[in-house]
Design a protein that fits this description.
The complex is a heterodimer of chains A (453) and B (290). In chain A, 46% of the residues lie in helices and 13% in strands. Chain A is of the alpha/beta class and 453 residues long. In chain A, strands 2-1-3-14-6 form a 5-stranded mixed sheet, sandwiched between helices. In chain A, strands 12-7-13 form a 3-stranded antiparallel sheet. In chain A, β9 and β10 form a beta hairpin. The chains are: A alpha/beta (453), B mainly alpha (290). Chain B: Keywords: Cell membrane, Membrane, Transmembrane, Transmembrane helix, Transport.
């Protein structure tokens, strides 16, 4: 009897084991389909006139975005063009959004007409032919409306794949209360910044000049600011050099901070991080111009304490980099690309910009960056400082010539596996960058690029 | 006549078989199919590569690192967890515990907390800047307690998993104990057996089947480790790599690297490993039961 019972349990167990194994496979199977639908040949032809005609004719489009202003912009657009219906979908933030977008592209159906794409992710979608080149609608005429760095960021190869929505020129956000208490002066160069970091940490071992536990977006921006150009793409051929002069310039400064234990290892965007920004544990943040909005809403304890200064540089000459920022792109799958393009034009080169500004965004349009009421606006959170004077100044000094990898999202995802280890072991970031580079070269070669590195 | 009966049988089994084939066999078949191809995420299409992906997985240092990690986890965490669950079940069953019902529920409660919530909660306790760990450090005047640092991480995860599943396993053991007929205890008492002797001679043998089941479930659970490290990753991105456990590796290959084929291969290899180890434990467990 016992034997019999055991036997049937046994079978059930094997079945249960197999079932659980199968369930993990379902997850894998869901994400894939053979038909990639990314053939670059079926290029729809459009014309500038088609955009206006499509607006007149009306129709329905779908828009995926996670920007805070998206819903308000869609409402305003539908009010201005009642015959156009925009289905707004928030498909998740960052990677969740891209995973879904990538899946619909792979599946060959289900993609939105218009999607938010960060500048760093644009080549990944543009190069395999998933996006529409907006030059066919004459959008290249809008060049002068945008800052050079954001205009460059919406290009991949020759193609124009979006209009810039916002920008994130980097500046140094610092806690003036901490600076005053410990007699620190606002650093103009990175050497001074490192010195300030040492002085602060010596005076109070619980305080750090900044936090950095390894963040791909930050590292690439810092290399950008140092004049590095580690990623070059030419069609299918990619060159990666994370040991170029700019990269080395950055690591030679940053190694001092990381190896000296002068940066806090609190990961960005964690609860601990927001607390640390409020209570003086983290004294500065070199980050994008979109940061004030984040601080006002999430770091209430920091009100009145923080100020903004230009980024420290290597030689004292003003230069900065972009950190973050998004564009809106039209997907190749779109059934009505002209209407989708019209929506993009309205969003980022029309009245949509006003709605965007009203929600506290930092624009990419030069006219708005120069508008006196924008530049001279005083911020109560920043102790009455006209922070946009600094931030718009930064927008004008972004180092030219930067480009991201055509698989930057993947690159970012393995940053912790490689460079992150150097952060953890405090063994110098150059080794980590080398490991990152090796992994990226191997991946690129597997995925159809010819990568040198 | 016999043939007709056979046909009737199929009609009854048919609905089940259809669902079974669709939801169970088809995904496995599809994963196996995927694992035989290599699809380039950017240029170039799908190429049949035979067993190349399998050869690559077996040579993949990242895969072995992750498999080794869950194996180490398994060897330490599962005995600790099941030992605790066994003690708790015996204690609750002993009829000497005051408020046994309360303990039963209290121990089981963590299992009812959604895994994600549990990990977020523990992540907060583990925080060495503002969490409970920070308070402990302040109290002791050191910074020795760092549950989210490199060498602490695996034990920290094991602690969460143990907390989550002790109650669940306790319940399996407890229900097995409840099926022991009272006559056996009476007979033991008449023979003059004490509490320890009763446990060894009656309770543990009665529990053997349940222990084998719980062990197999725990082995499968260990190999499937995903939620806990994946959520803690946001708190310790450098400690928990994208290939910290085999499931995380498969997940990140798919969703960050679009390497669906290779990911399917990793999943299959890991599934086979799990099945083999579970089977060996099952064989050993039932042999001893005889």
């Amino acid at each position: 009897m016992k034997r019999l019972a055991m036997k049937s349990t046994h079978r059930r167990l094997v079945a249960a084991g197999a079932m659980i194994a199968a369930m993990s496979l379902v997850l894998v199977a869901c994400g894939s389909s053979k038909d990639s639908g990314t053939g670059g040949d079926s290029k729809q032809q459009g014309s500038p006139a088609a955009v206006d005609e499509a607006l007149k004719a009306g129709g329905t489009i779908t828009y995926w975005s996670w920007t805070p202003s998206a819903q308000a912009q869609v409402t305003a657009f539908e009010k201005a063009y009642p015959n156009v219906k925009v289905n707004y979908v928030n498909a998740g933030t960052g990677n969740d959004h891209y995973t879904k977008l990538q899946n619909t592209i792979k599946a060959g159906s289900g993609a939105p007409d218009v999607a938010q794409v960060e500048y760093q992710a644009l080549p990944q979608f543009a190069l395999p032919g998933s996006l529409i080149d907006l030059r066919q609608y004459g959008f290249d005429q809008f060049q002068s409306a945008y800052t050079p760095s954001t205009w460059a960021a919406v290009h991949a190869g020759e193609g124009l794949f979006g209009l810039p929505q916002d920008s994130g020129p980097m500046a140094l956000f610092y806690n003036k209360e901490v600076f005053d208490k410990y007699g620190l002066t606002v650093p103009k160069t990175w050497d001074e910044y490192v010195a300030a970091g040492k002085k602060l940490h010596q005076a109070d071992p619980k305080k750090f000049i900044t936090n950095d536990s390894g963040d791909a977006g930050f590292a690439t921006s810092m290399i950008w600011q140092a004049g590095g150009k580690p990623f070059t793409t030419n069609g299918k051929s990619v060159t990666i050099n994370l040991a170029d002069d700019g990269s080395k310039k950055w690591t030679s400064e940053w190694n001092q901070l990381v190896q000296g234990g002068l940066v806090s290892s609190i990961p960005g965007w964690s609860d601990a991080w927001f607390k640390a920004l409020g209570d003086g544990t983290i004294a500065t943040l070199p980050t994008g111009a979109w940061m004030p909005g984040v601080m006002e809403s999430s770091v209430k304890a920091g009100a009145g304490k923080w100020r903004v200064a230009p980024m420290p540089t290597y030689d004292g000459q003003p230069v900065t980099a972009e950190n973050g920022g998004s564009t809106q792109a039209v997907l190749k799958q779109s059934q009505n690309p002209a209407l989708a393009a019209a929506f993009v034009r309205w969003l980022n080169n029309g009245d949509g910009v006003k709605t965007f500004l009203a929600s506290g965004g930092f624009p990419a349009t030069t006219a708005d960056l120069k508008a006196p009421e924008f530049v001279s606006k005083k911020s109560a959170y920043f102790g009455g400082q006209a922070i946009n004077e600094v931030l718009t100044g930064a927008a004008g000094t972004v180092a030219p010539g930067w480009s991201y990898l055509p698989y930057q999202l993947y690159a970012n995802s393995i940053f912790g596996d490689t460079v992150g280890k150097s952060y953890q072991s405090k063994s110098g970031l150059d080794d980590g960058l080398k490991a990152w580079q090796d992994a990226l070269v191997a991946y690129g070669n597997q995925q159809g690029f010819t990568v040198n590195g | 006549m016999a043939r007709r009966q056979e046909a009737k049988g199929w009609v009854f089994v048919g609905p089940f078989l259809t669902v079974f084939a669709l939801t169970f066999l088809a995904p496995i078949g599809y994963a196996i199919y995927l694992s035989l191809y290599r699809d380039q995420a950017f240029f170039g299409g799908s190429v049949f590569v035979g067993l190349d992906n399998y050869a690559e997985v077996l040579r993949d240092a990242k895969f072995w690192e992750s498999a080794g990690r869950v194996l180490a986890f398994l060897v330490v965490q599962v005995p600790v967890m099941l030992g605790l669950a066994l003690l708790a079940a015996l204690a609750i069953d002993s009829a000497r515990l005051r408020g046994a019902g309360f303990f039963r529920i209290a121990l089981f409660l963590p299992y009812a907390v959604p895994g994600v919530v549990a990990v977020l909660m523990w992540g907060f306790l583990y925080g060495d800047t503002f969490g409970l760990a920070a308070d402990l450090n302040k109290l002791l005047g050191t910074d020795a307690v760092q549950p989210l640092s490199g060498s602490w991480m695996l034990p920290s995860i094991a602690n969460i998993v143990t907390w989550e599943f002790v109650g669940y396993n306790m319940l399996i053991f407890y229900s097995a104990l409840r099926t022991v007929p009272g006559e056996l205890y009476e007979a033991a008492a008449i023979d003059g057996a004490g509490a320890i002797r009763t446990i060894r001679a009656i309770k543990l043998p009665a529990l053997r089947g349940a222990i084998v089941i719980a062990t197999i479930f725990s082995i499968i659970g260990s190999f499937q480790l995903f939620n806990e490290p994946n959520i803690l990753r946001t708190l310790a991105p450098n400690v928990i790599t994208t290939y910290y456990t085999p499931n995380m590796y498969a997940y990140n290959l798919s969703f960050a690297g679009q390497q669906f084929n290779y990911s399917a291969t990793v999943a299959i290899v890991m599934g086979v490993f799990t099945a083999i180890i579970a089977y060996v434990v099952q064989l050993r467990g039932s042999r001893e039961a005889l």
